[in-house]
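S2.1 Query sequence (non-specific serine/threonine protein kinase)
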Amino acid sequence: MGNCFSVRIKAESPFTSNTASGSTSKNSSKDGVGSSGFSSKVSAASVPPTPRSEGEILQSSNVKSFTFNELRTSTRNFRPDSVLGEGGFGSVFKGWIDEHTLAATKPGTGMIIAVKRLNQEGFQGHREWLAEVNYLGQLYHPNLVKLIGYCLEDEHRLLVYEFMPRGSLENHLFRRGSHFQPLSWNLRMKVALGAARGLAFLHSAETKVIYRDFKTSNVLLDSNYNAKLSDFGLAKDGPTGDKSHVSTRVMGTYGYAAPEYLATGHLTSKSDVYSFGVVLLEMLSGRRAVDKNRPSGEHNLVEWAKPYLTSKRRFFRVLDSRLEGQYSMGGAQKAAALALQCLSSDARFRPSMDEVVSALEQLQNTKKAATANTPNEDQKGIRSHYDRNRRREEAGFLNPIQ
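Output structure tokens follow.
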């Protein structure tokens, strides 16, 4: 938990509460929230208009209200060796509850959960805690992390999620070590598709929610690398009626926020599409959205990559070298073109998330067909094309933009 490269943008909170506390800055990362232990059904049509008072939110949520003692027992009194991660909100602890009664059980028995505990001295406050309960307490989808319950007792604010054993996409892309092996091309495309389906569900006519903080640290993975969106503290209801956007103070994470949102505070579903484009580019390149440790001119991933993405002969320079031999050139070109379209400076030219889902599904279908036909020849062609273009570039035959 904690992305040292992310800089938080000043935030406002969409909720009114009598017990709001502190700053509304967001935490930048987390691990282990969520598991495939709970079945998630798609549901949005029954969700009432977003309530605004704390009482309405807590009363309308479909999750369990835990006591502080129950969660203290399930996490072994929040022992340090139970910590799954740290963030602006506070710490996330590993715990255990009975799968049927949801009562606290002895460590190692029952179902594993992730318990996020608000740090009273942290950057996040009661309002974002309430936003999580509001949205995840009513929305169900296979690509959203499941909120099991919450605790609101005296000064204590906690959230209880299904456990996601493989942690965040951020860790798998950027952390080095034996525990985090580089994700294969196929797994990256699977994760991209799952995350896209989660956003498409939020943007649907029945739900109309803008996520507003899509980034690799908020995409969690279950044991089968199924992606689920987590951390809804910045989520906001989309525009209604004849309104084209929602006006807010700018909030989110630098490197992921859409340019028109940064400039005007006008928030639309296309703001999420831009953020998705950044994450897809991170997955294709293996680079962070913002990385000050890179050479000058390469700190901002989008600014560095865009000139390459516009060239069919140079786009491969953006691709993660650890993925060589795992993709077809046609598939890689289509994925790069999709990222570029999502990153359009003009929001009108970005696809909808439904269109993104369709494009990624087609990529998966094409990949399966290619693998079934001539996988060995395809991989030889990839390496040959990569090496040939590399030699031509070094010889000065390729211009920066073609």
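Residues 1-30, 34-42, 373-384, 392-402 have pLDDT under 50 and may be disordered. The longest helix spans residues 353-373.
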